[in-house]
Design goal:
With 379 residues, the chain is of the alpha+beta class. The protein has 7 helices and 15 strands. The termini are far apart.
Length: 379
């Protein structure tokens, strides 16, 4: 009974103290309260505590204190493995509560990879390794290997002015591989012989076929210049510098007596010898011989004053185009490009005049064209 009375008194004191503290009245003795700890209940990990502070004026303040943290101590564990998670056991030193924590699995400890089946060029292989702790087997595929090809077999021999074809097969799976190939020494768009291309560009520039920088790039401009040269030489106009084309420009590695010569050296030709004279409406043929290596070059040539697609000057072509437009044979713009439309206009005029329809402005064509233009202007 006495215990209950004391508890009631204590609670009443707390209410009074809280009331005094919440009223905020100034201290009757000091002006401001001078609190001192009067009593306290230390909190535990299962029960909150409290503190009571008093002032000499009789006022008191009571505050609750939160529960304290558990004081865990590990009492045991089950270690994790590569097959299962681990466990750790703890006990609170104050309240003797218990808890269990889970620890993550450990990594497998594998042996070296072992080849189960070898890969081929058509199927993947298989390899495996084993964890020496738990016996777990890990497997993985192995990428296919490259084909094992036989030597190339020529199916179409290349020539000095055309590509060849060849094929080969895989000795494992018999897969066929075929490709076209250039004769040795050919210069083309994918070539990496920069110095050889520069030498070719230099020749084409010096002889009026190329009007561009000499950069070793076998691009569209160089291909167009090679095509123009091949047309004049009577070669197939492919734009590819096959050996036939290069041999007409450069000396071989040896002279006619078998003595070494510098590679890429230009021919030093003598005078042209006319084999068939050109006329005012047709090409002629001629040849000359290199004074260094003895190479003989044969070429077709146009009569002087002819305008030819690919090698005609821009200003002359503009005058030709304007005359064709004025006479109604060409419906196009004047741009100095001797292209398909200009060739068509020339053929239209040649047909009207009864000339051979070549699309090339020979002297016969030009003389007749400008004479007809003069007559029209004189009317």
């Amino acid at each position: 009974m006495m215990k209950r009375i004391l508890m009631l008194v204590f609670c009443l004191m707390m209410l009074v103290g809280c009331a005094h503290a919440s009223e905020g009245d100034p201290c009757a003795v000091y002006g401001e309260h001078r609190w001192y700890l009067f009593d306290q209940l230390t909190p535990t990990c299962t029960q909150s505590g409290w503190t009571i502070h008093r002032c000499d004026c009789g006022a008191q303040s009571t505050k609750a204190v939160p529960v304290a943290a558990h004081q865990w101590q590990q009492t045991g564990f089950i270690p994790a493995s590569c097959e299962a998670e681990g466990l750790a056991f703890f006990e609170c030193q104050q309240c003797h509560s218990n808890k269990t924590e889970v620890t993550q699995r450990s990594e497998h400890n594998f042996n070296q990879w072992l080849q189960v089946s070898d890969p081929t060029c058509t199927t993947r292989g298989l390899k495996q390794r084993t964890c020496w702790l738990c016996g777990y087997v890990d497997q993985a595929e192995v990428d296919t290997v490259p084909h094992r090809y036989s030597d190339w077999v020529i199916t179409l021999p290349c020539t000095d002015h055309s590509m060849g074809a060849r094929m080969r097969n895989c000795i494992v799976c018999n897969k066929l591989d075929s490709q076209d190939f250039y004769p040795a020494g050919t210069l083309h768009a994918d070539t990496d012989s920069i110095e050889a291309v520069k030498a070719l560009q230099t020749y084409l520039t010096d002889n009026g076929y190329l009007n561009s920088i000499i950069d070793g790039d076998y691009g569209k401009v160089t291909q167009k210049a090679v095509t123009a040269y091949q047309k004049e030489m009577g070669f197939e106009p492919t734009g590819i510098a096959y050996p036939q084309t290069l041999e007409a420009i450069f000396c071989p590695d040896t002279d006619p007596n078998g003595q070494p010569m510098s590679t890429g050296r230009l021919h030093a030709y003598g005078e042209w010898n006319i084999m068939q004279a050109a006329t005012d409406h047709s090409q002629g043929s001629r040849r000359h011989t290199c004074l260094l290596c003895g190479h003989t070059e044969r070429a077709l040539y146009y009569p002087e004053g002819s305008l030819v697609p690919g090698i005609a000057s821009s200003q002359d072509v503009k005058e030709l185009q304007q005359a064709l437009i004025d006479l109604g044979y060409l419906k196009s713009i004047v741009d100095g490009d001797y292209g398909n439309s200009t060739q068509k206009g020339v053929r239209n005029f040649q047909r009207a005049m009864g000339f051979e329809e070549t699309g090339i402005a020979y002297p016969q064509t030009l003389n007749a064209l400008y004479a007809q233009l003069d007559e029209k202007k004189a009317r």
